[in-house]
Design a protein that fits this description.
Blueprint: E1 12-13, E2 33-37, E3 44-48, E4 57-62, H1 64-71, E5 76-78, E6 84-86
Antiparallel strand pairs: 1-2, 2-3, 3-4, 5-6
Length: 103
């Protein structure tokens, strides 16, 4: 992986086996992309295996700040430089979901 601290851990396919059943509502789905999280860096790498399965290519890297922002995580994410970045908790209102969000 291109980034420092990308210790890969528990990766898997973009589609589970039940999605691949010809009788399933999503039978057009294929196992093409590997979702590969970095344990120390908290990055998520998306690898495309279709063009050449023996040489998968990185098509997207999702940075930890993006994951925290979109998911509303309130965890501490390790930083490459050895410091820890603190993800402060956000309320439902701050995420635009609470009753005061429309104000």
């Amino acid at each position: 992986m291109p980034g420092a601290g990308d210790e890969l851990h528990h990766f898997g396919w973009n589609a589970c086996s039940s999605c691949l059943c010809p009788n399933a509502p999503h039978s057009h789905v294929e196992r093409r992309y590997l979702v590969v999280p970095g344990l120390r860096s908290s990055r998520i790498h998306i690898l495309d295996t279709k063009p050449d399965p023996r040489n998968p290519q990185i098509v997207k890297v999702i940075e930890p700040g993006v994951v925290a922002e979109r998911a509303g995580y309130t965890a501490r994410i390790p930083c490459i430089a050895g410091r820890t970045a603190s993800m402060s908790p956000r309320s439902e209102t701050q995420r635009g979901r609470g009753p005061a969000a429309s104000l």
